[in-house]
Amino acid sequence: MREELKKYAWRKFRRYPKTKEITDLRDELWSMMCDKYDDLVAAGVEEREAARQARELMNDCTAALREAELGSSMGALRRMLIGILTFSAAFMLALTGVYLFISIVTLKSFDKTWLLMVAGSFVYVVYVAVKLYAYARSFGFRALTRVAFGGVFLSLVPLLFMLPSLAAHVLYGADIWGKSWLLALIIAAIWLTADMMLFAHGTKAFWWELAGLGFLVTTVVFLAFSVFTGAWNVAWLVYVLYLVVVAFAMYFAELRRRRGE
Fold first, then answer.
1. Who contacts 52 (Cβ-Cβ below 8 Å, separation ≥6)?
2. What's the number of domains the chain is made of?
3. Is 109 exposed, middle or buried (0-12, 13-18, 19+ CB in 10 A)?
4. Which of 66, 109, 176, 203 yields a CA-CA distance of 20 to 30 A from 39?
5. What tens digit of pLDDT does each residue of 159-172 get?
6. What is the 3-state secondary structure (H, E, C) of 130-143?
């Protein structure tokens, strides 16, 4: 019966963040439930009735749970902000030092070294996005976690698309903007795939996101083929192929569902 009480307590705390304050409260409540259960059984109460009364302790601790959750949330938010501010100061000092050293000592010119500051800024944006995602995920904020997850991929666009294109133009005079923007679509396709795998639950959500992913991948293929070959007049056929694949997928999914019934 103690094991059942433990499962009950753990299940009740499943939606709360796994912070020290919450886990300590969970362990304390479980200990109190076990003590009450033992006392009731020793007093002659039937085991199931004793377990029921012990579980009622959890209902009397709602206010304590909310207070602990709020306290842990605010504490974690404060620690995250302090961590971001500390990292920001150290990162900007280091970046500025590298920028000045290369500009003054190594190259003796500030002509193109500003790219270092741009690159550092893009890296910093990725860092902040990852920290926000980690914060949302640690507290089980599903909607915020999903938004922050998309923010991580969005922060990669300047770093992986804009920075290389800008560097190629400034350093070598090469204009690759006309083709490098395909990287943004590839990042979007990877994000949609990962988002579907992590957050899509239920048949409808899965199929809608799978269809969106397929359309995005088809668009990437269409644009890449058209840009590199110039065959815009025939590249649109990939959309026809996409629709054929979707139709077959829906047909076999429906066939499988009917057989399951």
1. none
2. 1
3. exposed
4. 66
5. 998 999 999 999 89
6. HHHHHHHHHCCCHH
